Amino acid sequence: MTKFTRRAALASAAALPLARPALAQSGDPIKVGLILPMTGPFASTGRQIDAAIKAWLRANPNPVAGKRLEILLRDDTGVAPDVTRRLAQELVVRERVRALAGFGLTPLALSAAPIATEAKVPMLVMAAATSIIPQRSPFIVRTSFTLPQAVRPMADWAAKNGIRSVVTMVTDFAPGLDSEKAFKETFTAAGGTVTGEIRTPLRNPDYAPFLQRVRDLKPDALFIFVPSGEGSALIKQFSERGLKEAGIRLIGTGDVLDDDILNDMGDAVIGAVTSHHYSTAHESPENTAFREAFRAVAPEMRPNFMAVGGWDGMQLLATALARTNGDVDGTKLVEAMKGQSWTSPRGPVSIDPATREMVQDIYIRRTERRDGQLWNIEFDKIQGVKDAA
Amino acid sequence: MAAAVTVLLDGIASGMLLFVLSVGLSVTLGLMNVVNLAHGAFGMVGGYVCAVLLNRAGVPFVVCLLAATLAAALLGWVLERLLYVRLYGRDHLDQVLFSIGLVFVLGACADWLMGARQQLIQLPEWLSGRVEIAGVGLGRYRIFLILLCGAVAAGLHFGLVRTRFGARLRAAVDDGTVARGMGLPVGRIFSLTFALGSGLAGLGGALGVEVLGLDPNFPLKYLVYFLVVVAVGGANSVAGPFVAAILLGVLDVAGKYWVPQVGAFVIYTAMVALLLLRPDGLLAKARS
Questions:
Q1: Cα A338 from chain centroid?
Q2: Where do the coiled-coil regions begin and end (chain B) (predicted)?
């Protein structure tokens, strides 16, 4: 199997530069190596970010500091850190890319970090969300979010809004345990009690028995964190079990109600309260422009939080290049990125110079049906949230 | 008390679904002696047929279930005639390698056609929600599962024991050479049986979209569960896997409810215990 995927990855790698038309040269283009899971179980992440980057390039056609940006896309299939590492190495050595970008999941980002350090190229992490990532290389800058960044405001909000007892239910893997811990710490510190901690196996056929247990524990709210695609199965069982009628509220982080699939989840999700840094329904001129640019590239998709990470990554890189006057030295570029602030489609953001993480507003949203579609509607926000792992 | 009844009924529903999904495997493995690890792929095909018809064409759910069954049965029949028939005489390693390969091929096809994401369906109004009977709450869909799968199990049992086709199948399995000598079309009987098993997997896959989820990893994700049912139930009857599936379903649900810390392992512990006690299957006669 490994052989097959490698071959497929190599074949697509070989085909890509040929498919790109030779545009009028304005000096040598600045090459950016984009590594994403375009196939496999996490293909949604790759498709979203790829579309967002294409959208950004269409919306910003002018050369940056006199140079054109050229994106070299590689598929790492999402499940093989060694492939990610090898692709990063090839891009740096053979294609001489001046920046690496993408990285769908934590193990993939970690495996490529030493390459960025050695080659001294900036590495823009646009998706992977575990806190430790930027500590692995001084060249890593993240334009997505971290889990504690989203979880802690949720716990705070719950404590301040009449929720006294919570049962947590997370998938039994690293991000799940991270969010369980972060939620419990913040919620307990704010005066609430966690009356039950349930961990569901990663390969889980049925959430029903766990939810029946929650129903009988009778908490004020159930906090959930599960891998993105699993959210709908869980929430359906939540409503089938009658937890809503039993007075149990549903809270969680926004990736459970991913905009990419939210619309197919059905009315069961209405009323769920989640915290996240981006909702497609966010109201601002920047987001309207972003959604229009995205629709021109991928009319069948709704841009989600992954897409906005890709868009902001390009924005950040372009501004940094403008600041260095087109100097592609990696150390200078990362320095130019530190402390930058701009208005993203998600709202005002900046790069924390100390951690190279996003400082951003976290929104509390409720799922509602508007114009026949399901949206996460923001109704409260916590400003300038830093990553506090 | 009410909680215990709810857990019991949930367990039965989940066991029934498991039975419909895996009974075909116990037939091919036990009766025809073919190790068909691609069994779950037929379930996946059924699930996708159901999801596409329901979501894109708005076909009523019950019709979708029927279409899923037929589509999986047809695919099973075609693949049996083209490919599996060449494997009947081969050793088990060949069969394992072939069927695992088939899982990857069908999984990749599903990925290419439908994408890697989870498929979501909306059940009709009359199947959603929950009813309270004497203080015991149960989802309507689970009641539907119990009734439908129970009917399928009863039908299979009587089909195998009472009908002429059942008698022929048992004869063909007991001694293929003699059966052929008596003029029974053994090859055709096997094709039909294979198609039937695949069709039932398709039905199970379609019924399972709401409960188990559906993505291109479905056949591998649940393969272990199918094999556990067949191993525990014994691979040569309908009643054995049925009892095994119900037992495992109830234990699985009860374990997750009362001891969620180890919930995932209860089913495997039960398998080990049952195999130690009854290595030939739950209902097998003692070895003579």
A1: 20
A2: none
Q: The tokens 């930058």 sit on which residue?
A: A340
Length, in residues, of chain B: 288
pLDDT in tens, B173-203: 778 788 888 888 888 888 898 999 999 999 9
> How many Å apart are CA A91 and CA A72, to the nearest integer?
8
How do residues B228-262 score in pLDDT, each as one tens digit? Answer: 888 888 766 788 889 999 999 999 888 888 887 77
Interface test with B, best of A167, A212, A228, A369 (most B CBs within 10 A): A212
B100 near A CB under 8 A:
no
CA A317 – CA A308 distance, rounded (Å): 14
Q: Cβ contact (<8 Å) for A44 and B139?
A: no
Pairing, β B136-139 against β B130-133: antiparallel
- The tens digit of pLDDT for each residue in A213-259 reads 898 899 999 999 987 667 777 888 888 788 888 889 999 999 888 89
Residues B80/B190, Cβ–Cβ less than 8 Å: yes
Dihedral sign computed on CA atoms, order A146, A150, A153, A155? negative
Q: Which amino acid is at B208?
A: G
Interface test with A, best of B211, B222, B267 (most A CBs within 10 A): B211
**How far does A267 lie from chain B, in Å, by closest CA?**
9
Q: What is the C-alpha separation between A291 and A281, in angstroms, rounded? A: 10
Average pLDDT of chain A is 87
How many Cβ pairs within 8 Å bridge chains A and B? 95
Question: What span, in angstroms and rounded, lies between the C-alpha atoms of A157 and A143?
Answer: 24
Strand ranges for chain B from DSSP E:
130-133, 136-139
CA nearest neighbour of B205 among B56, B70, B77 = B70
Chain A residue at shortest CA distance from B251: A209
| Cβ contact, residue pair B115, A43, below 8 Å | yes
Mean pLDDT, chain B, whole residue set? 87
Residue pair A323/A64 in contact by the 8 Å Cβ criterion = no
Lowest mean pLDDT among A11-20, A238-247, A288-297, B135-144: A11-20
Structure token digits, residue A80: 């093989």
All domains of chain B, ordered by start, with CATH? 2-277 (1.10.3470)
The ipTM (two decimal places) reads 0.72
Cβ pair B261:A241 closer than 8 A: no
Q: Which residues pair with residue A378 across a beta bridge? A: A365
* Torsion sign (Cα): B96, B100, B105, B110: positive
